[in-house]
Each structure stands twice: as structure tokens, then as C-alpha cells.
Amino acid sequence: MKRMRLISLLLAVLLAASTTPALAEGKGPKDPNPNSQIAYIEQFEYVQNGIGMGLLSPDSIVPLASRCRTYTLGVNGYSAVGIKVWSYAWNIYWCYNGSTITSLSKWRTVWANYGWSFKGDIAENQSGGVGQTSYWHYAQGDFCFIETYTCITHSYPWVNQTVYGSGGYTGSAGGN
């Protein structure tokens, strides 16, 4: 019986610690939301070279002189005890001929657990694209922590990406 109480107490302390807002030194937003349950976020990015035809729609045409890449940029949100509780990323697949973009597709990748759920994107904007020298895309998502009638708190990650007809790319990501 004492062992059961000790385990229950330990679980209660761990749960409270994982949902207590705290900022790890040098991580997270400069002006944190005091109600946020995210202790810090971590940006990640991947670039993959290659044709990857399966990523385009069946009616897409990729000119033979084109090269293609996939640029993935996102952020992971972590609790105060260092557990990843959500992930938000956008992927841009584009083909280019050295000066212009010849084909393009994009998609979002999300994951949430430990009381968090993804509610959708609250902002999205884009410019440029096929036949242009660049393509810019911005999106911001909304994660909800423990939803009953309303969410206890929200976290709002964002991704800002640009890809170029030269094959270059740039971006930044963040949130709270």
C-alpha cells in the first residue's frame, strides 16, 4: 500500500513538473507566454536532393533539365522535463533549372502527444512559384494543451521558408 502511494505521489510530481512553465537558458521565445506549457522549442531543417517524383501530383511535368530538392523546416516543442510534446514542419518540394522554379508542391507535417493536439493553421501566406525565380511560404499553427470546453493553453509555432530557381533555400522557424 505504501509502495502504491509512493508511486502515485511520484507520478503526480512528474506530471506537475512536465506541465510547469519554465524556460531553459537560451531556449524559447524572448518574451515567453507565462501560461504556455512549452519550456523551449528547437528548430530543425533537412534538405534532400533528387527527383522524388512520388511527391508531385500525377499531372505534374518535370522538365528533363531540372534538378529537384525537398526543403523541410520546422520546430519541436518540449516540456520542462525535456520531453518532445509536439512537432510542426512544412516541406517544400521544388524543381529548378538554375534560374526559375519549374515545378512545386508543399505539405505540412505535424505530431502531438502528452495532452497536446493540433488544431490547424491560423495563418498562411505565399508568393512566387512556378515560372518565378523564387517561392516564399509562411505558416503558423495552433497546438492546444488539454482541451475540455476550451484549451488550457496554446502554443503557436511558425515556419518561414523561401526556395529559389537556383536551387538555394533559406528559412527560419520559431514560436512559443
Number of strands: 9
Strand content: over 45%
Radius of gyration: 20 Å
Helix content: 10-25%
The stretches of 5 or more residues where confidence is low (pLDDT under 50) are 3-32
What series of H and E elements makes up the topology? HEEEEEEEEE
Distance between the termini: 41 Å
Largest sheet: 5 strands, antiparallel
Describe this structure in words.
- The chain is mostly beta strands and about 180 residues long.
- The chain is built from one helix and nine strands; from the N terminus they run αβββββββββ.
- The protein has one helix at about 1-20; strands spanning about 40-50, 65-80, 85-95, 100-110, 115-130, 135-145, 150-155, 160-165, 170-175.
- A hairpin with a 3-residue loop joins strand 6 (about 135-145) and strand 7 (about 150-155).
- Mean pLDDT is about 80; it is low at about 5-30.
Describe the structure using short key phrases:
mainly beta; 52% strand; disordered N terminus; four-stranded antiparallel sheet; 176 residues; five-stranded antiparallel sheet; 1 helix; single chain; 10% helix
